[in-house]
């Protein structure tokens, strides 16, 4: 402890911020990959790729910060979570590799562009599905004995994790479609708007399904959301989420450009807020709390100094890159 500041809580919020930043920033370019087969080969696909070309690889910085921060600040959680989700983590990393390679080679190898387009879609879909199922695997609980993972290789594979995986795929597709609504114009924008409406409804349904499943998943989750006085204090979370969903549909119907994307980001924020309420203070529900998993205080202080120096730089160059490439995307890049 430094004075009245609980460093473990500070680190929990730092990692939560990194995860949220990754989900939003890499989510929309993964979403474009998921939607890629619905775009016409040629100019429409090229404009979609050009809209994320300047920023897509920098977006993955946040995945490194989130994963590295978990290892450094909560080593016990890292040692439990990875063995419990090895197949999903491996699938996610392979998907990201194929997505990245395909992104570069579709421009440099035009003769096999159809293959690289398929690899771009497959990699994006695999990564998104694996990320959602990893979240579901944590929420449904991990077998822990003597501070180590005690489950089997396929404990993560359940109907619930498939639901969370599909919800993540739909949510990323929503972010990708609304990003294109913002960054494109003409018939490509009109097509993206139609896709955004479909992705929005799919996301709403799956988000509601996951929320209801959570209440049935664990008695502790149900008590947290449905018992008094918590039910009155937490009621604003689903109410605000519903209001954001309606505002998103309204913005799409009114032909707004940027508003649907930012409302999609707000929807993800509320989803993450609900997730935080559900699992707090566990980092491995319901077996290991953030304090059980925390690194020694001196290690947390040392790492916090590094984060205090590097995080503003990451935010600054990220903001600068988005500012430089603001505006609509033409057929040959930004204009």
What do you see in this structure?
The protein is mainly alpha-helical and 335 residues long. The chain has one domain (8-334). Helix content is 77%, strand content 4%. It has 15 helices and 6 strands. The protein has helices at 7-35, 43-52, 56-59, 61-73, 75-84, 86-108, 113-139, 159-183, 186-217, 219-226, 230-234, 236-253, 259-279, 290-293, 297-324; strands spanning 144-145, 148-149, 282-284, 288-289, 329-330, 333-334. A two-stranded antiparallel ribbon has the order 1-2. Strands 3-4 form a two-stranded antiparallel sheet. It has a two-stranded antiparallel ribbon with strand order 5-6. A hairpin with a 2-residue loop joins strand 5 and strand 6 (333-334). The longest helix is centred in the middle third of the chain and has 32 residues, at 186-217.
List the helices and strands and how they pair.
Blueprint: H1 7-35, H2 43-52, H3 56-59, H4 61-73, H5 75-84, H6 86-108, H7 113-139, E1 144-145, E2 148-149, H8 159-183, H9 186-217, H10 219-226, H11 230-234, H12 236-253, H13 259-279, E3 282-284, E4 288-289, H14 290-293, H15 297-324, E5 329-330, E6 333-334
Antiparallel strand pairs: 1-2, 3-4, 5-6
Supply the key terms:
two-stranded antiparallel sheet; 335 residues; mainly alpha; 15 helices
Give a quick rundown of the structure.
The chain has 15 helices and 6 strands. With 335 residues, it is mainly alpha-helical.
């Amino acid at each position: 402890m430094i004075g009245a500041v609980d460093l473990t809580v500070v680190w929990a919020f730092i990692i939560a911020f990194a995860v949220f930043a990754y989900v939003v920033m890499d989510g929309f370019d993964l979403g474009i990959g998921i939607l890629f087969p619905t775009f016409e080969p040629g100019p429409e696909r090229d404009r979609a790729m050009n809209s994320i070309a300047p920023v897509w690889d920098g977006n993955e910085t946040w995945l490194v910060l989130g994963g590295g921060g978990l290892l450094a600040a909560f080593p016990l959680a890292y040692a439990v979570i990875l063995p419990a989700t090895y197949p999903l983590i491996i699938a996610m990393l392979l998907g990201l590799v194929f997505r990245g390679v395909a992104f570069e080679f579709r421009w440099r190898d035009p003769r096999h562009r159809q293959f690289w387009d398929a690899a771009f879609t497959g990699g994006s879909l695999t990564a998104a599905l694996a990320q959602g199922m990893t979240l579901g695997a944590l929420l449904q609980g991990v077998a822990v004995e003597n501070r180590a993972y005690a489950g089997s290789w396929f404990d993560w594979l359940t109907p619930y994790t498939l639901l969370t995986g599909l919800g993540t795929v739909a949510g990323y597709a929503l972010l990708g479609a609304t990003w294109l609504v913002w960054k494109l114009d003409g018939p490509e924008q009109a097509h993206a708007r139609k896709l955004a409406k479909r992705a929005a409804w799919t996301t709403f349904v799956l988000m509601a399904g996951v929320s209801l499943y959570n209440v049935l998943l664990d008695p502790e989750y149900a008590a947290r959301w449905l018992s008094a006085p918590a039910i009155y204090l937490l009621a604003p979370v689903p109410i605000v989420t519903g209001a954001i969903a309606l505002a998103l549909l309204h913005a799409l119907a009114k032909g707004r450009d940027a508003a649907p994307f930012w409302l999609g980001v707000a929807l993800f924020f509320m989803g993450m807020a609900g997730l935080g309420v559900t699992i707090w203070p566990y980092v491995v529900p319901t077996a290991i709390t953030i304090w059980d998993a925390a690194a020694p205080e001196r290690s947390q202080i040392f790492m916090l100094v590094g984060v205090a120096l590097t995080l503003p730089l990451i935010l600054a160059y990220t903001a600068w890159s988005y500012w430089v490439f603001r505006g609509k995307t033409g057929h040959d890049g930004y204009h």
